[in-house]
Description:
The structure holds 2 protein chains of 2 kinds. Chain A is of the alpha/beta class. Chain A has 8 helices and 12 strands. Chain A has a 5-stranded parallel sheet with strand order 2-1-3-4-5, with helices on both faces. A 4-stranded antiparallel sheet of chain A has the order 6-7-8-9, with no helix packed on it. Chain A starts with 6 loop residues before the first strand and ends with a strand. By secondary structure, chain B is of the alpha+beta class. In chain B, the strands form 3 sheets. A 5-stranded mixed sheet of chain B has the order 6-8-9-11-10. Chain B has a 4-stranded antiparallel sheet with strand order 2-1-4-3, sandwiched between helices. In chain B, helix 3 (47-95) runs antiparallel to helix 4. Chain B is elongated and about 150 Å long.
Amino acid sequence: MNMEALKIVGIDDEWPIRRFLQTALAAHQHIIYEAASGAEGVAAVIQQRPDVVILDLGLPDMEGFEVTRRLRECTEIPIIILSVREREADKIAALDAGADDYLTKPFGVGELLARIRAAMRRVSPTNLEPILESDGLLVDMAHRLVKVNGEEVSLTPTEYDLLRTLVTHAGKVLTHHQLLQQVWGSGYGDEAHLLRVNISNLRRKIEPQPARPRYILTEPGVGYRLFVDL
Amino acid sequence: VMLYLVVVVIAAVRYGQNPAVWASLLSVLAFNLVFVPPYYTLTVAEAEYLLTFVSLLGVGVVISTLTARALVQEQAARQRERQTAALYALSRQLSGAIDLPQVAQIIVAQTSLTFKGHSALYLLVNERLELFQASAAFEPTAQDEAAVQRCFEGDSGGNGHGRLLQTGRMIVGVLLQLPVDKIGSLTPDQEQLLDSFASQAALAIERSQLAQEAQEAQLLAETEKLQAALLNSISHDLRTPLASITGSLSSLRNDRHLLSEAAQQELIRNAAQEANRLNQLVANLLDMTRLEGGHMQLNLQLVDVQDLLGVAFMQLDERLTGREVEIVLPDDLPPIEVDFSLMVQVFVNLLDNAHKYSAAERPIAVTSHIEHQGEVRIAVSDYGVGIPAAEIDRIFEKFYRITQWNDISGTGLGLSISKGIVEAHNGRIWAQNRPEGEGTIVTVALPAAAVHRLEREEIVSETATLERHN
C-alpha cells in the first residue's frame, strides 16, 4: 500500500530525533513540521492542519496526555506517540485520551511507517473494506466469516466481536479498556480477565501456533494489536 | 591448765581477739579462785603462782591475738579470693562477647551481682554521655546522673560509686554502681575491685567498638571492590558494541566509494545488530539498578503464560529464526499474577541463553505444568553445552560467566536479573542439567493467582449469558 505525500507535525524536544524524523520521512515524500514543546506543537497543528501528528511523551512543558487532550479538542487527526519502555501508564493515559498508537524508543523507520499507515486507514473510508485478508487470515465482516489458511473457523459471538474490533482497527493498538468497552460495553472497563480469556481462546482457534501468535499481538501492559501486512 | 587453754582458743576463734583476752583473764581469775590456795579468794599465797598466772595470761593473750589475726587473714584471703573470682568471671564472660549490647549486658549484670546493688553503664555517644544499659528495674535519678557527669568530668570527689571507663586511647564512658539501699559505701577492697571492673569494662567496650569499625571498614572495602569490578565490566560491555557501530559508520562515511554494495549492506547490518545488543544491555542495566535500589515496583496483573511467552518470543524473533521451538502448555494452566514486562524479560533472558549455548540445529523447548499447591512451573530447556555441576548455582550471580564459555557474548547479568525479578514475585528459579545427557533446564516456579478458580466459573457463566443475548 503506497501512501501519498503526507503533511506531518513532529513534536519532540530532542533535536536528534527531530532530525531523524525529518530525514527518514522526507525520503518518502512526506513533509515534516517540527515543534520542540507541547505548546509549540499544538500551535503548529492548528496552523498547519497536518495529516498525522507524531508526539513524544517526554516533553518539558506538558504531559503527553495533556497535549493529546488539547489536540483532540480541536482535531480528529491521527496521533502517534513516542515513548520509552516501562512507562506503560503514560502510554495508556495518552491512548485513552485519544492517541491512536505508540512507538517505543528506540524504533526503526519501518515500524514508524507501519504505524502511520495503520493510523491513516481509519481516516480514509474507502479503505475500510468489509474483508480483511492478511497472511493467511481472512475476515469477511459482511458475512461474519473467518477463515485461516482456507479453513473456516467457528467462533463464539464474543470471540467474533473481539476479532472484528481488532480488524476494524487493524494495525493499531487497542488498550484493554478500549477493547472491553467496545466488545462488552461500558461498565466492563475493568474486567481484564474477560478479555484475557477470550483472547486466549481466540488465539487457540485462529493462530497456527497459539504460543507464538502471528495475528493477535500483545502489547505488554497496554493492550492488543492485530498485525497486518500493510 | 589444758582446759584453760582450750577455752581461750575457742573464745579467740569464735569471738575474736578482745573476748579471747577477757576469757583468758577470767580464766586466770577463775583458776586463781578455784585451784590455787587460798581457795576461793583472789589473793595469791605464793609468788610462783603469781608468775604462773601472769604467764598463763600472757600466753592466753598471745594465743588469742594470733588466732584472731589468723582468722582475719583467712577472711581477708577469702575475700580476695571472692574478688578475684568475680573479676575472673567478668573477664571470662567479656572475652566471649564481641557486640556492644552483649558486652554492656555482661558488665552491668556482673557489677550488680558482685557488688550486690544496681549498676548502670553510660557510654560516650557523640561526645555526650548516654545511658546504654542499666540493671533490671533500675532507673537512675537526676542525682545519680549528676554524679555520673561529675565523674566524667574528672571530679573524683562526691559519690564514689562512679568509675570513669578509660583506656589508653580514649574515654569510653562511666560505670555507676549503687548499693540497693542507696546508702552505704564500699570497703577499700571493694573500691579496688570496682576499679578493676572498670578497667576490664573499658577494654571490652573499646574492643567491641574496634571490632565494629573493622567490620565496617572491610565491608566498605569489599563494596568498593565490587563497584570497581562492576564499572569495569559495564564499561567494557557498553564500549564493545559502540566500537562496532562507530567503526561501521565511520567506514561508510569515509570510504563509501571504496566499498561494494554488499560490503556496505554488511556494515549497516552489523551496526544495526550491535545497536540492538546495546539496547538490550541498557535495559538489563536499568533493571539491575532498579533491583539493587529496591525501586522494583511491580505492576501486577493477571497474565496468561501463553501470552507471556508469545511476547518473549516476539522480542527474540530474529535470533530464533530457523530454530525449532517446542512449546507445551496444558490447556488448564491458570494465570499468574505478575508484572508483564518484567516477567517477559525473564523469559527473554532464558530463551536467549538457550539459544546462545546450544547449536542451531538443536531444539529449544518450553514446557509448563501445575505443581502441587497451585504453583505454576515453566521450564526452558536446551540441548546445548550444559553447565558444569560445580557452577550450577553460581550462574545466578551478578556478572558470573562460566569460564569455559568465555567466547560466547554476554554480560553475565541476564540470569541474576531474572532471579531478582522472579524472587520479587515470591517465586523461585533454578537450573539443572538434563539427566539424560547434554543440555540445561532452567525452571521458574511462581505461585498461581488465588483468584483464578473463581474467575473461570464467572467467565463461563458470563460468556454463556452474553451469547444468549446475541
